[in-house]
Amino acid sequence: MTSERTEDGPSSGSRETVTADRTGVFVADTDGERDDAFTVRQSVFVDEQGVDQDLEYDEYDDPGADATHFVAYAAGDPIGAARLRSAGDVDLPSGSGDRSVGKVERVAVAADRRGNGWGRRLMDAVEAHAREVGFDRLTLHAQTHVRGFYERFEYEAHGEEFEEAGIPHVAMDKALGGGG
Questions:
Q1: At residue 2, does pLDDT exceed 80?
Q2: Fewer Cβ within 10 Å of end Cβ, the chain: N or C?
Q3: Torsion angle, CA of 93/95/96/97, rounded to 10 degrees?
C-alpha cells in the first residue's frame, strides 16, 4: 500500500485537490502531498510537542532530497506522516551485518486520530517500501513514551536514553525479513 494513487501528474507547486473519499497511506509524490505531510508534522511536533521549527525541518525535507515521505489520509484529510531515508551515518549494534540501512523518521499521527490504527498503517507502509527499495535493516529514534509502539513491530532498543529536540529518545532497530 505504499504507492496508492487516485491522482496522477506532476505538481504545479500548489496544493492539489484531494478527493474527499481518499483514505490510506501514500508515498507523497507531489508537492501537495508533501505539504500535507508537513502540515501533520507541524501540528504534532511543533504545535503539540513544542519542537523548534528549525529542528523539525531539515535538509531531508528539501525538494529533491534523498528521502521518501509518506502521508496518511482519512476521507481526504491528512492525518499522518512519516519519512524514510538511507541511514549510512547511523551506528548499529555490533554484529548486525546488514548492508543497507534505512532510517525511519518523523512518524506522526494527528492527535484526534491516535488509537485508531493509523500509526500501524504508516509503519506497515514504510516497512513495505523499505523492503521494495532493498533496505536490510531499519533504525529509528523513538520518543521514549512510544517505545512500546515500536517494540510491537519488533524494533529493539539499544544504547542509553538521549535527548533530541528536548524530548527523551531511545535508538531502536530492526532487521527486515523478505516477508511482512
A1: no
A2: C
A3: 140
All cell numbers assigned to 96: 548486525
How far lies 19's CA from each of 3, 23, 75, 78, in Å?
16, 9, 8, 11
User: How sure is the predictor about 89, in pLDDT bands with cuts at 50, 70 and 90?
Assistant: low
Neighbour-count burial of 79, counting CB atoms closer than 10 A to its CB (0-12 exposed, 13-18 middle, 19+ buried): buried
3-class DSSP state for residue 8? coil
Residue that the C-alpha cell 513491530 belongs to: 153
Separation of alpha carbons 18 and 139, rounded Å: 32
Domain ranges, ordered by start, for the chain: 24-175
HEC profile of 30-97: CHHHHHHHHHHHHHHHHHHCCCCHHHHCCHHHCCCCCEEEEEEEECCEEEEEEEEEECCCCCCCCCCC
Report long-range pairs for 60-65 (Cβ below 8 Å, ≥24 apart).
Answer: 60/85, 60/105, 63/31
Residues 158-178 have pLDDT tens digits of: 999 999 998 999 999 999 975
Residues present in the chain in total = 180
CATH class of the domain whose range is 24-175: alpha beta
Q: What is the pLDDT of residue 63?
A: 86
Question: 38, 53 in Cβ contact below 8 A?
Answer: no
